[in-house]
Amino acid sequence: MDNQNIESPVASPTSSVSSISSTASPTSVFLSKEKEYVKNYNKNYYLKNKDAILGHLLQRVNCELCGKEVSFQRLTYHKNTSLCLRKRKNKKPTTTTTTTATTNI
Ligand SMILES: [Zn+2]
């Protein structure tokens, strides 16, 4: 008994290339595939590191411009608020940068 005549339906990679017509350019197809891949990758990455990401985003940081303590995700937004602009003027410009890492738990 020999099963040599059983042919496996292998799709040849060259046949699918010609199917891409002029309506969709190969680059756009490639880009949409890339986008999808990145989207999925980011989604998986987020699900895996959800706690770490959120923990980082919700971490309290001090605004380097006015010194106010805000959460990391709000920092960019905070810098554009009138509150920050006002506090910046009140804050005296410090010539010496003192980096004190205080860890009070
Ligand atoms: Zn600020």
Descriptive notes:
This protein has helices spanning 13-17, 26-48, 50-57, 72-78, 82-90, and strands at residues 60-62, 69-71. The chain is mainly α and 105 residues long. It has a domain at 59-90. A two-stranded antiparallel sheet has the order 1-2. The longest helix has 23 residues, at 26-48. The chain is elongated and about 85 Å long. The relative contact order is 0.06. The model has no long low-confidence stretch (mean pLDDT 78). The protein binds zinc ion. Zinc ion (ZN) is lined by residues 63, 65-66, 68, 78-79, 84, 87.
Can you give me a brief rundown of this structure?
With 105 residues, the protein is mainly alpha-helical.
List the helices and strands and how they pair.
Blueprint: H1 13-17, H2 26-48, H3 50-57, E1 60-62, E2 69-71, H4 72-78, H5 82-90
This protein binds zinc ion.
Zinc ion binds at residues 63, 65-66, 68, 78-79, 84, 87.
Entry keywords:
single chain, two-stranded antiparallel ribbon, mainly alpha, 2 strands, binds zinc ion, 5 helices, 105 residues
Largest beta sheet: strand ordering: 1-2
Question: Could you give a short account of the major beta sheet?
Answer: 2 strands, antiparallel
What is the CA-CA span between the terminal residues?
Answer: 76 Å
Strand content: 5-15%
How many helices? The count is 5
Task: Outline the low-pLDDT stretches.
Answer: none
Based on Cα principal axes, name the global outline. Answer: elongated
The distinct ligands, each listed once, are: zinc ion
Radius of gyration: 28 Å
**N to C succession of SSEs:** HHHEEHH
Give the helix/strand class.
mainly alpha
Question: How many β-strands, per DSSP?
Answer: 2
Helix content: 40-55%
Mean pLDDT: 78
